[in-house]
Every structure is written in structure tokens, then in C-alpha cells.
Amino acid sequence: MSSDFESYEQDFAVLTAEITGRIGKVPKLVGDEKKQMVANVEKQLEEARELLEQMELEVREIPPQSRGMYSSRMRSYKQEMGKLEADFKRSRIAYSDEVRNELLGDDGNSSENQRAHLLDNTERLERSSRRLEAGYQIAVETEQIGQEMLESLSHDREKIQRARERLRETDVNLGKSSRILTGMLRR
Q1: Residue ranges making up the domain that contains 46
Q2: Whole-number Cα distances in Å, 80 to 17, 36, 50
Q3: Neighbours of 133 (CB within 10 A)
Q4: How far apart are CA 167 and CA 164, in angstroms?
Q5: What pTM was computed for the model?
Q6: How far is 83 from 126, CA to CA, in rounded Å?
Q7: Coiled-coil annotation: which residues (predicted)?
Q8: Does residue 94 form part of some domain?
Q9: pLDDT tens digits for 39-65?
Q10: Is residue 37 domain-resident?
Q11: Does residue 115 belong to any structural domain of this protein?
């Protein structure tokens, strides 16, 4: 199971390295090359998201005792993914601003503050989304632990009920033997 996870990790590392390299090239390209590079990066980001989902599924299958280490690695991968998506958005914004400036002949000084403000808001939203995802993961893990505890308690209840039934049978048998002994003593 962990070998699958490690395989996904290696694929994720290679893919994120390729994405990082391509994101750096986006602002330097022009025309169709730039459009094609943006499309390729979007496709690779989707592949990376799918790999993260696969790794998450693998982590859920790992026994709870050793799940902690994998969960922390997943958090760091999700943060890395968020950073890649933010970098890609910035490179696309730079790309769209560049095209707009070429078309309108605008120097962009007035929009710099707006763009910075939008980037800050986007980062805040992404941080909030990551916090919500982390909270959701904690809720899922808590639910799983609760379910395991309920199953354990159910098994314990069955054992106690069987023991109680055996005690009742023993009590009945003791009563019978007591009556027999009393009858024998009278004779």
C-alpha cells in the first residue's frame, strides 16, 4: 500500500517540477506558443490534482497507527499544489495584462494596485480554502475513529451479553444442583 503511495509521490514530484519550469516560461513566450504553454500547464495541474486524490485515497487505506506520517506529507503536497496554482494564476495575470496593455496601449500603472489587491484577496481565499479542506480532513478522520470505537464497543457489548447469559445458565444449574442435594439429604 505504501509502495503505491511512494510511486504516486514520485510521479507528483516529477510533474510539479515540470509545471514549475513551464510556469516560469509562460511570461517569456508570445502568441500561440504562450497559449499552448498555458493549456499544457492547465492539463498538468489537473493531472497533479488527480495524483493528490489518488494519494489521499491511499492514505485512507493505511492503518491509523501509521497514517500520521502520510497525512503530514499530504498536507505539504497540498500546500505545494496551492503554491503552484497561485504562481500559475500570477503568470496568467501577467500574460493577460500584457495582452491588454498591447491592445490598449496602457502603461498599467493604475492597475498595478488593483492587481496587487486582487492577488492578495486570491491568496486569502486560497488559504481559507486550505483551512476548510484541513478541517474537513480532520472531521473525516474523527468520524472514522468514532466508527471504529462504536464497532469495538458493539463487540464488547456482545461479549458482556454472552457472559451474562452464561452466568444465568450457571445460576439455573446451581439452583437445580442445590435442590437435588437438599432432596438427597432429606432421604
Answers
A1: 3-105
A2: 11, 24, 14
A3: 13
A4: 5
A5: 0.48
A6: 9
A7: 31-61
A8: yes
A9: 888 999 899 999 889 888 888 888 888
A10: yes
A11: no
